[in-house]
Here is the input.
Amino acid sequence: KLKPFPANFFWGGSTSAYQIEGAWNEDGKGPSVIDMAKYPEGTADFKVASDHYHHYKEDIALLAEMGFKAYRFSIAWTRIYPNGSGEVNQKGIDFYNNLINEIVSHGIEPIVTMYHFDLPYALQQKGGWSNRETIDAFEIYAQTLFENFGDRVNYWLTINEQNMMILHGDAIGTVDPNLENPKKELYQQNHHMLVAQAKAMNLCHQLIPNAKIGPAPNIVSIYPASSKPEDIMAAYNYSAIRNWLYLDMAVFGRYNTTAWNYFEEKGYVPTILDFDMEVLASAKPDFIAFNYYTSQTVAASEGDGSDIGHTGDQHITVGEPGVYKGANNPNLKKNEFGWEIDPVGFRNTLREIYDRYNLPLIITENGLGAFDKLEEGEIVNDPYRIEFLRKHIEQMQLAITDGVEVFGFCPWSAIDLISTHQGCSKRYGFIFVNRDEFDLKDLRRIRKQSFYWYKELIATNGEK
Ligand code: BGP
Here is the structure.
């Protein structure tokens, strides 16, 4: 018999600042690494995005109409500190005060990501996460957030998908790919981010003791491509490098042994200062947030890595010579963008995380990117999205029945926004935003079919 979803379950949705807000240089906002990055040809930049900065009241009203219990969004570090550190930009504080008040006034619980890929460019110019000063800047930024918004924000997420930033450093671009050993540098940055995260968790508990805070990596079950013991070992190792390295540190305050051995073998061992491990061990998250889109399948990699190529998600390469290589999973269907769809893997992932850490879980991203079409009569038919979410929600309920403590589901994305790598034609939202890659049109908001479906699902606490 299925267990019902808990009362007060956080049904909601997610966005991130640079993907939705626009107003990239308004009201004193400084540039982030995202603003300065080059975009793939033919795709929109993030300057206007969904223009949420100017539409936030209308947008929050629509989320309230859907019955959202929680809304996960990120604060742009460069609105608060245009240069990453130094002077606070009051207009940035004002914007988020207004936004949070709007959210709270509709009875929606705000869930705030402190840092979602958009590192201040001024910090990047000084070495970004390679420079320990960025840890201090993050700590001060965190303090500013807790002091200004901690009276209304009870749920905080430290860093979005730190593991993706490190594993696919070229995709988010915090490291120069021309360095002699870019991966060593990435793992140094990783160490600094982990220390920054630990400091933020401690600060949160100190300054706003009633609030809760946790990490928000992308965690997925890893399958071996075959029953060959070598493939099973590759899957085990990749899971340690991709998943547990990040969460073991956040929860247990220590480096995962398999990941550490891999650092040693590959020459990626980061420099650790004396007091770092104490700081890391002293911090504890209250929950684990994670993003899940698809599982991953890997095989053993032998030789020079020339057999490592693109799989599944087409814009990233999965693999490392001698360790693992991405493989297609013939048992799974793919979405229009080549991402494998695996709802059962979602249940497995929930169980894996819960068994390992015994902390409450919240899903902060899950969803389907698709080329939605606006049809005559203001209609957007997206049955594929409904089916994707329904199947994942079913598996989540099975996981809850298994005994996994889940307190919220915030799919990606609440509203259409700009995809991190694939422009605005790849849509994820319940609400259509009328614009094309380069034609901003009128940016009007249109409820998709999935909007009405999700509204009913929330109204029945997931029963329908
Ligand atoms: C996650 C990011 C989001 C979002 C999502 C969808 O990795 O946290 O910011 O972009 O993936 O990915 P994409 O936009 O590449 O389809």
